[in-house]
Amino acid sequence: MRFIRPVWLTHKGEKKDFEVYSCHVSPDGTRLATAAGDGHVRVWSTDAIYNAADQIYSKPKQLASMSYHTGTIHTVRFSPNGRYLASGADDKIVCVYKLDNNPPSHAATFGTDEPPPVENWRIFRRLIGHDNDVQDLGWSYDTSILVSVGLDSKIVVWSAYTFEKLKTLSNHQSHVKGLTFDPANKYFATASDDRTVKIFRFTPPGPNSSAHDQMNNFTLEKTINAPFAASPLTTYFRRCSWSPDGNHIAAANAVNGPVSSVAIINRGTWDGDIHLIGHEGPVEVCAFSPRLFAKQAPNKATQDGKGQGTQHLVTVIACAGQDKALSIWITSNPRPLVITQDLAVKSISDLAWSPDGKNLFATSLDGTIIAVAFEEEDLGYGVSLEENEKSLAKFGAGRRGAGILEGTGGLLLEERSKEGELRGVEGRMGALMGDATTKQDIVVNGTTPLNGVLVNGVGSAERRDGLPAGDGDGASTRPPVQEDPNAAKLERLKQRVTITKDGKKRIAPLLVSSAGGESSLPRSQLMASTSSAQGVKNDTPQTILDLSKPFDGLPKGGLAALLLGNKRKFAVIEGDEDGHIEKKVALASQHGAVPILSSSVDGLVPAQSSIPVTGQLPTPEFIRPAVTNPSLLVSQVRLAVPKIRSQIVRNFGGTSGDFVIGNSSNNAITSSAEVVLEARNPTGLPVTGRQQDREPSRVTVTKKGQPVWQDFLPKSVLLVTGNSDFWAVACEDGSIYAWTPAGRRLINALILESQPVIVECRRWWLMCITAVGMCYVWDMKTLSAPHPPVSLAPVLDIAVHGLQSHPTPAPAITSARLNSEGRIVVCLSNGDGYAYSPAMYTWQKLSEVWWAVGSQYWNTTDASVGDLHSSSTQTNGASGTANVSAGVIPYLERNTTNETLVRGRAYFLQRLIKQLLSREGFEGFESGVSIAHLENRLAAAMMLGAKEEFRVYLYMYAKRLGAEGLKLKVEELLRGLLGGVYEIGGSAGETESRTARNAADRSWENNVDMLCGWPRRELLKGVVLILGKHRDLQRITVPYANVLEIVDGTDGGEVMVS
């Protein structure tokens, strides 16, 4: 261990050296940057410092000097990627410098004795966002953000790509004087004079992120008070440091009783009982060495059979402050390794380690800059950076390497992949600067499309051959470019001249807002749905909802449900305390008799014949409850049965579409006028005086008040429904009647086992749910059913409560609707959403609260894939085909959000997940749940046949797999997109049996060229382009790009809009 203090290593002044407030070493270890009270940032050669004692050393010592601040510079920091250098000063400005490869344009500053610059560091950005002195800076380890803190109590987060202000945090109540970043890139910590250290969680933003995208990012995770309750307020800095293994934070200016100390805070629990005590005055700065150390040199004796090290690794920390002493600590030793007293005349202001951990630099307010060089055995033996990565991997650190290009194909694919992102950035910046044109539908020899431009009747985004525009020989004619009607207005706004109060002319600046852009980054947000007027796009490409529109509103809170367990006990019967009835039933069962028992709410009771009711009964607002069906006595599911109403009216106005009155022939009468279906139940006493001789119910259809047809039914009507294809009513005895629009009986009465409680229709499909939880679906056009009746018991948690001996309230049914394919879609009050799969004869859960609180893609606005849509709904068939199941998945997720927020369940689940994220073993929890959520969306879209949603979710899934570098899943996804079309082997009979009950294109391994309504080639092309920019995946993606001819430039990147 030796100290190096060159005479020339200082910020010289006329009478004395200026105070040096900060220093930092570049990631390659060749440069030392220092900041001082002279307003200069100086860059020194570390090699010259190490060789200061060498008299024959002739290389340049000072490499550059920048003086772009107007005051004292308090902090200077290199970015981890080495591209930038940032400084903050008391002029409230953060300056970002960039090294220019061109030689400096000047030899030396005139009138000074400054040495000529060797490197050309130019000012790149001036960031204005603080209202007082900037005290400290910090870069995230992936160089995605820059954070500055100051005496205005603010924490300002800047994008390290565009240097746009992303967010201002005002959580501290006093001056903020220190900042450190988590090497796992999950948190950053700030230290303030309000005697707290605050931990903030963040997700690294992407290149296209804006302030609007980061509204829910950078959230306060924890506030730590205990070690700082009595800390002095006289320190100039509170510079803390995060250990390279990510386990601890060293917080300066802590106290342990009356003694100054350094508090060691544990990650996750954010507490700590370890204090480094040894300084007589407050500690202002702590700095962990960036390397981990071992006691012995790595050799075969310290490695296992796999070549992995078996030694316990330690960290090294340096501390200094107002007592002008420097202490070096090792985590394996309770006492400091060394304490150097009176290292400087005044307080030590900053410490900086070299990347190899062998050299330490210290600056002081007396102008001193000192280097401390350690020998190999002083601190231990430094291990490779792979050990750092292994330690950080348990915290979910995903810092993957850039990868190595393995050929020209990979480079071409990377360029094609980044074209879409560049177009997105240019489009957003052009819109911000007023250069964007308004979206208009241009028609050339065709009709106006829903989206895009038509050229000779074909959308510009799609050609007749189904390939994207821009493919082929380019022979298609381009429409003439129309002038932007807003261009002149924008130009006038840019050059608008105003006259000030003193008569001077000024050009008014044009406001450029950064809040309008959307980012490709997911953000987790559990909030109620907002109106479209606020400019928030849903992540679905369509606003169409392919579900039946309910007529009869369900009760508040949903349709109540009750589950009865199999293990039913006998109810307590008055006068039978000894259980004689139960014994009698058991004895009868032994001789082969089957006792008839009723399953009541209190338990099993012997069945009794009911005495007919005689006499006059009072008539309430409703007529009476429906008759009880015997099937209720054996069913384990009970749903609330609606009361019989005296009059049921359903209005079919013009907004619901045209209704055909008559048959479907050419002379049918089509009317959009008001059509009313009315059912009147008898309210008075029977004429005969007997209860069973009730008057019939009347069913009437009127148009503009004039009757179209009328029919009579022997039983009271519970529910009605209908559309332009048929009418249907459900009666109290479990019968269903249906008529054509003209009033002809469509089918004989359908007899069900219990009372209908929900009746819905969608096109030719009719659905009925009965009081025992049975769901029926019929195709009234072919008079058939797509699947046998299915019970709601599985979705009501019968598997959990079925073996209990007492009745259990089940989640209420808040919605039960049909889509255009006759699929049943059910929403429950616990937030779950289900759909029945006729191909697999089972319910499938499409939405649940787990995704809402754990996935980063819940309620996301993913603009890079949210704009993916076909230029016409007529693609690959009629518009009805394109709209199958459209909007069903977002509808279910919105219902989950609403139910979760209303019932307060989200609060407790979010607390649970917040605790899990800091536990060992759950480091990849957030990423795993987010990927699983996207996979759930993909499977749901394919099962439902939701064409547009399937492509959106597929591209979102591909983006996430590329970001995570999951090679196995990427390879499996690309192979699945190829499907069985290119598979060798397999019999035709096997294929037919697999697809007999399912659509041909709704399976990854089908033998057709389509997948969920899209050409496989188009989907594969889009996924390959998304993944192409990831070099570590190019061994997988380049062969597919060659097959698709993407890298040859003959097939394009117009598939996706970024």
UniProtKB/TrEMBL annotation:
It comes from the Eukaryota. Residues 28-379 form the CAF1B/HIR1 beta-propeller domain. Residues 459-487, 515-539 are annotated as: Disordered. It holds the Pfam family Beta-prop_CAF1B_HIR1. InterPro entries: Beta-prop_CAF1B_HIR1, HIR1-like, HIRA-like_C, HIRA_B_motif, Quinoprotein_ADH-like_sf, WD40/YVTN_repeat-like_dom_sf, WD40_repeat_dom_sf, WD40_rpt. Gene3D superfamilies: YVTN repeat-like/Quinoprotein amine dehydrogenase (2.130.10.10). Keywords: Chromatin regulator, Nucleus, Repeat, Repressor, Transcription, Transcription regulation, WD repeat. One of its GO terms (biological process) is chromatin remodeling. GO terms for molecular function: nucleosome binding. WD repeats lie at residues 20-45, 66-107, 127-168, 169-200. Its main location: nucleus. It is found in: Nucleus. One of its GO terms (cellular component) is nucleus. SMART domains: WD40 (SM00320). CDD domains: WD40. Belongs to the WD repeat HIR1 family. Required for replication-independent chromatin assembly and for the periodic repression of histone gene transcription during the cell cycle. This is Protein HIR. It comes from Lasallia pustulata.
